[in-house]
Amino acid sequence: MKKVLFVLTNHEDLGDTGMKTGFWIEEFAAPYYLLKDKGIEITLASPKGGQPPIDPKSNEPDFQTPATIRFNDDKETQEILSKTIKLETVNQADFDAVFYPGGHGVVWDLAEDENSIALIEDFYNNNKPVAAVCHAPAIFKNTKNTDGTSLVNGKKVTGFTNGEEEAVQLTSVVPFLVEEMLKSNGGIYTKKADWSPYAVEDGLLITGQNPASSELVAELLLEKLK
């Protein structure tokens, strides 16, 4: 049985706005169920462990999908989610791939988290896929190749677009824009129209543009695990 590690944000404050953030339910639930239903064993981790914060916006009626509806009725998965293991206790040797769901929280904690950075590099250097969707490609801000270059340098990548960030009016709130960071790190950044499903695979890196792309990323990851 293949094993995939999911890493979730613990960050819940949306900058200085007084509003809350966290991870986006669809970006967790769709890949989680797609992989789980195919017999993949999933372990959930976060920097601090315990219950990761859910972005309250992702619970709103407009953002419900079959996967979020399933999650909202799934007490067993909610229970597992409430007990994520601490990132510092995780060893890549125990897993076949790692997946990062997005949500604005990621740009604050996981982009800078030393355990996460080391873990991604470790997965990559051991020839294991690293997948991330929407804001989660923020995890590549500080990851490096063994030669010191950025992990995304010269690689095809995507992630939440400048236009999408502008549409949700958080351009001046987030510490950096995912699209700009990927480009400045040498990534070959591409995108489709805002809010369109879009995912890119380049070697071991699989990235998706936005919440609508979460299932696409999981499908690419599943193919890779075969």
UniProtKB/TrEMBL annotation:
Pfam family, one: DJ-1_PfpI
Gene Ontology CC: cytoplasm
GO molecular function, one term: glyoxalase III activity
Domain DJ-1/PfpI: 26-223
Single GO biological process annotation from the record: methylglyoxal catabolic process to D-lactate via S-lactoyl-glutathione
InterPro entries: Class_I_gatase-like, DJ-1/PfpI, Prot/Nucl_acid_deglycase
Protein origin, superkingdom: Bacteria
Keyword Transferase: yes
Keywords recorded for this protein, A-Z: Glutamine amidotransferase, Lyase, Stress response, Transferase
Keyword Lyase: yes
Family: Belongs to the peptidase C56 family. HSP31-like subfamily.
Protein name in the entry: Type 1 glutamine amidotransferase domain-containing protein
